[in-house]
Amino acid sequence: MKTPGTRARTASAAALVVLLSLALSSCAFIVNAHDVEVPARRIREPEAPTNVILMIGDGMGTSHLTAAMIERGDLHMERLPVGGMMATFASNRLVTDSAAAGTAMATGYKSYNGAISVSPDGEPLKTVLEHAEDRGMATGLVTTCSVTHATPAVFASHIDSRSKQKEIARQMTSSGVDVLFGGGYSYFLPDDEPGGTRTDGLNLIEELRERMPVALTLEEFRALPEGRAAAALLHSGHPPTAPSRAPTLAALARKALSILSKNDTGFFLMVEGSQIDWAGHENDHDWMVEETVDFDDAVGVVMDFAEANGRTLVVVTADHETGAYSVLDGSLERHEVTRPNWGCGDHSAAMVPVLAYGPGADAFGGMIDNTHLGRVLIGFVSR
Predict the structure, then answer these.
(1) Catalytic annotation on 382?
(2) Would you state the pLDDT for residue 4?
(3) Full residue range of the structural domain in which residue 349 is found
(4) Is the pTM of this model over 0.90?
């Protein structure tokens, strides 16, 4: 005959078995690029977001945010209540580049440095933007670099090398993307047109104009009609740095939201603050803070929209950290960093911050891999 203590221990053991079974049944295992099994994060079934906005501060590590917070004061990024850290390793390197990191976030799969949404074997990997298009959602890409650069490229093209920007431009033109804001019109124009560099005779600007208005100047951008699609390629190459850049990233994001929100099915939008990374490569503290604040201003525009809308998931993160940057001294009262420290002039393997707001935000808390971020976003836009 079992005593009360024995029955209690038996019941406790049974409960433990049930809990373990539930835990194991809710966790798949992802084999990462280094053949190490990593438990996939369990995703609860929240209310699915209607809109998904991914914001990428290229090269933005935790110390970059720290410096911007010290010098600016409050950041809009503080409005996102869910926080985590994200690993960024590529399939072939501990230290990633923007192409491999972007591929992981866009497709949910690791690839090699330089890859634009293709597998290590060169097979195309379907992106979150393409999944969203399949569902009838509007889609957009907004950036402070050429739209053919690695991070925007991974969402709307597939190619073995990020250096093939003219082919990326061709694929972007034939994609279904509804909003395309940034620079790089030289890759879209034939070399007999002012600023054009294409030698194949294609005029991709004219092809874009067959399905949307296209702005090539600030004045044309300001005059864009309130339609359901638009492109603004405002510089032949990359836009200038934040202090002299017009329109700002915040203005580009506001216009993109105005266009994409006309789709009742919802939208997917990627917004990139590209030049945080470039300032990191130059070990230029002041430039880095200016670019981070410019990016944060765009976060503010997006958060205003998301808070008013109530059905929008916002995820703010980085593709990698640049510069092995740290803050060694400064003053909160004077809003200054007096001892910025750079460890290198390239990317590092440091984890990067992830912040989230809205329906589904809890899936991004804790420590995650960049493939987890991609797979969760794809899951949301595919519902």
Answers:
(1) no
(2) 40
(3) 48-381
(4) no
